[in-house]
Amino acid sequence: MTAPAESIRTRRRLGARTALFQWLFVVPALVYIGLYFAYPILQNIVTGFQHFTASTFYTGEAPWVGLDNYVQVIGSSSFFPVVRNTLLFTIGSTVGQFLLGLLLANFFRKHFPLGRVVRSLLLLPWLLPVIVATAIWRSLFDQDQGALSQLLQNLGVVSSGVPWLTSPNFALVSVIIVNIWIGVPFMLTILYGGLTEIPEEIYEAGALDGATGWRAFRHLTWPLLRPTVNVAVLLGVIYTLRSLDIILGLTRGGPANATQTMPTQSYQLSFQLFDFGQGAAMSNLLIVISFVFALVYLRANRPSVVN
Amino acid sequence: MKSHTTVAKSRMRARITAGGSLLVVGALALSGCSGGSGGGSSENVTSIRVADYYTDDPAKTIIGTALDQCGTEAGVTIDRELVPSGQLVSKVLQQASSKTLPDIQMIDQSDLPTIAETGALTPLPDAGVPTDNFGAPALSAGTFKGTVYGLPPTVNAVVLYYNKDLLAAAGVTPPTTWDELSAAAKKLTTNGVYGLAFSATNDGQGVAQFLPTFWSGGADETAVDSPEAVDALSFWTSLVSDGSASQSVLTWGNSDAGDQFFNRTAAMMFNTGSQMAKLNKDTTLNYGLAQIPVKSAGDEPVSVLGGEDWTLPQTGDKARAAKAAEVLTCMLSDKTQLSLATQRGTVPGNPALDAQYLEALPALTEYVNTVNSARSRTAQLGTGWAPVATALGTAIQSSISGQASAADALKTAAGN
């Protein structure tokens, strides 16, 4: 009579202990997320509503200003050009990175001598510190002595130096080219990983039904690669959207704000003008854009993920 | 494959962290990290903390030796922190919020008002550091709202460098007016060599290179769209549109312009005195220094002052503050000024030392004159300079890149 009751109590106690253990395992992750993710974001949101200047660091005084920072940032004459640059930069870079990455990933699926070596070497742009990469590109892009201008002149394509980074019409394109160069290895690695997951038998079966070449890609590879594509594009977009170092290293947002994006503008507001409130407001807008994009994209692709 | 993915992932994470650091700006306020022994009163001070941005030799060693000597005289050892120049201000702000500022802090003079305004610095007279052995330009570089918060042992300025051999070959004498500069630069421009180089980036460097022409033309930072300002920017732009200077000036920093001059791909350049160390490495490069060309003969040339202020942050520890003031007094003494200036090719903050200085370095006469005519960027506007500098930087780039006329570009700048 007493035995079952006791065993229930023991089991309950054990259950409580298991729950406690489970929580103990979760705590480090929670603390980490709280300290390094939730806290900075919350602080950034709060800062966006404050008049937060250099003095605030010493005095701790940051008067509440409501939506003032947002009104200033959005009302600035440079806001819409900056948003446009950010979108062009993000879309241009991601499309370029993705298409080249996909092409190369398919190319490296075929086994050929030195294929692995070449694939490893293609990772170099990704492994190079961005500040080094941008310094090299800046010298390649030099209008007069840069290797690219020299090459095009020697080939007779152009008659005088190309103003890669010095013309407001070219600069954004040049910056996108560099970002594609840096980002392709990332896309290549992820997409190649996705491709190797697709079993060979599916292609053999498809070939019997006449699906080879482009048709095999369209009807077999693409649908099976979709989950990988989703991840790659999503990461690519979010990473490009907030990319700061590439632009700072190449043009610092110039010439004449032609390559000014939301992250560089936010950096300028905070660290050149010491208006950390407006800088935070700008980066909060950027977070909202990233978030909206992530939601729309994940929603649009949900069925294929479920499949 | 696996190892590649791992590398790529950790690289990605590193990048995300770097990008995410923008987010953390707000969090800087509470995240003071650097340790240090500040706080609490300690009777027996054996070492003091000093922070500066001289991360590269020769300045790193020259300054380090001077600090050590002054430390020995004061009976303390120097615990020196080197912070890259781009990170100095954010580091100072971070340490200001966590109350871990060093006992002596070096700050670029254009950033001094920003830091002084926070209240984190002790006025030098309050600390008993003498300020009477400094000339007006050096004093103004360390003054915020009438109070001296820091002083530069040595100063420098933007000056016109010219390649003596190239000028002689073209039969050109160093220009003294805008017209002469235009004509000389055009004449010196030949296949592969530009007449002139300078920085026109949209940050502080590009703006500082333009300021001497801006000021010497009678313009003023309180009215950036005045007719004088439009004239100055039109002239600056014409140097590029003439083809006498490359359009690449839009991406060249001071050291890039220095490289052009060093490689003989530019016959003249506007640059700060800091380029001399590099140029002197090539003994076959025969160069001279000239004052800033003025709008019309007889005008007063005005250059822009550069240099680093040494300040005393408030640490709340009286014994340490006293030692820090002692070390700083030694760093700002005539003896140290002269020794630093001669070694670094900068000019003593005290003009009374000029004669002694020129005895050792007679070639620098025009440079010393230029420095003595120089103005501090922040003297008039204080913390208001930063937004004007940013707007002016954009205006320079709009005009040189042909996006807007000089007048329209400056009108936009004045509107901000």
Number of helices of chain A: 15
For the largest interface in this structure, which chains are involved and how many residues does each contribute?
A-B, 68 and 57 residues
Radius of gyration of chain B: 23 Å
Classified in CATH, the superfamily of chain A is: MetI-like
Stated plainly, the CATH topology of the largest domain in chain B is called D-Maltodextrin-Binding Protein, domain 2
Structural class of chain A: mainly alpha
Short description:
The complex is a heterodimer of chains A (307) and B (416). With 307 residues, chain A is mainly α. Chain A is built from 15 helices and no strands.
Structure description:
The complex is a heterodimer of chains A (307) and B (416). Chain A has 307 residues and is mainly α. Chain A has one domain (78-306): MetI-like fold. Chain A is built from 15 helices and no strands. By secondary structure, chain B is α+β, with helices and mostly antiparallel strands. Chain B folds into two domains: 42-151 and 306-372, D-Maltodextrin-Binding Protein, domain 2 (3-Layer(aba) Sandwich), CATH 3.40.190; 156-303 and 381-415, D-Maltodextrin-Binding Protein, domain 2. Chain B contains 17 helices and 13 strands. In chain B, the strands form two sheets. In chain B, strands 1, 2, 3, 4, 7, 8, 9, 10, 11, 12 and 13 form an eleven-stranded mixed sheet that branches. Chain B has a two-stranded antiparallel sheet with strand order 5-6. In chain B, strand 1 (47-52), helix 2 (59-74) and strand 2 (77-82) form a beta-alpha-beta unit. Chain B is globular and about 65 Å long. Classes of the chains: A mainly alpha (307), B alpha+beta (416). The interface between A and B is large, with 68 and 57 residues.
